[in-house]
């Protein structure tokens, strides 16, 4: 077994934990795990991180969050006054940005906390958190500004 194969399998494991794995990938992962204790340990550790997510309460810096939210709210009010039709989109963006900021802060903080309490490498925990939270919330954040653009394009075609 090449070292690269383990790296590929770890990517598949990350995807599995994030719930975005294809049936083929899942099948090859299952076959690989049968003979690889190294990757079995990786799955085990990742599963413990996910399980730990439910049990911890996060300490996100409330000052930072309030500051971000306050400036976004102000901007939203300005935009709303100028153009009421943009209201929903602006609030969508705010929700997405807050989610992203919170997610990244939690990933950093929780990563270190979980690593020490579960006796794991911090970079491993960060990797799992990136896969299950930060990346999806980033996609979510990017989706909101795009939605009205897509809708406008459709309307101009019709
Ligand atoms: Zn392996």
Describe the structure.
The protein is mainly α and 158 residues long. The protein folds into two domains: 3-54, no CATH class; 84-157. Helix content is 87%, strand content 0%. It contains six helices and no strands. α1 (3-18) packs parallel to α3 and α1 crosses α6 (122-157). The protein starts with a helix and ends with a helix.
Compact summary:
With 158 residues, this protein is an all-alpha fold. The chain contains 6 helices and no strands.
Overall number of domains:
2
The largest pleated sheet is described as:
none
Task: Output the helix-strand order.
Answer: HHHHHH
Our Rg estimate from Cα atoms comes to 20 Å
Percent helix, as a range, is over 70%
Q: Unreliable runs, pLDDT <50, ≥5 residues?
A: none
Number of helices, where a helix is a run of at least 4 consecutive DSSP H or I residues: 6
* Hetero ligands: zinc ion
Termini, distance in Å? 56 Å
Instruction: Tell me how many strands there are.
Output: 0
Structural class from helices and strands? mainly alpha
Q: Based on CA inertia axes, which overall geometry fits?
A: elongated
Q: What is the average per-residue confidence, as pLDDT, rounded to a whole number?
A: 73
Quote the beta fraction: under 5%
Oligomeric state of the chains?
A: single chain
């Amino acid at each position: 077994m090449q070292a690269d194969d383990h790296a590929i399998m770890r990517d598949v494991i990350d995807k599995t934990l994030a719930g975005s794995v294809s049936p083929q990938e899942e099948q090859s992962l299952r076959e690989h795990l049968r003979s690889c204790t190294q990757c079995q340990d990786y799955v085990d550790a990742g599963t413990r991180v996910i399980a730990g997510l439910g049990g911890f309460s996060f300490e996100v810096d409330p000052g930072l969050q309030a500051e971000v939210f306050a400036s976004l709210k102000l901007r939203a009010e300005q935009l709303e006054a100028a153009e009421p039709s943009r209201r929903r989109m602006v609030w969508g963006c705010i929700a997405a940005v807050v989610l992203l900021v919170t997610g990244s802060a939690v990933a950093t903080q929780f990563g270190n906390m979980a690593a020490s309490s579960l006796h794991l490498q911090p970079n491993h925990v960060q990797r799992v958190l990136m896969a299950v939270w930060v990346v999806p919330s980033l996609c979510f954040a990017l989706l909101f500004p795009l939605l009205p653009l897509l809708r406008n394009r459709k309307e101009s075609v019709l």
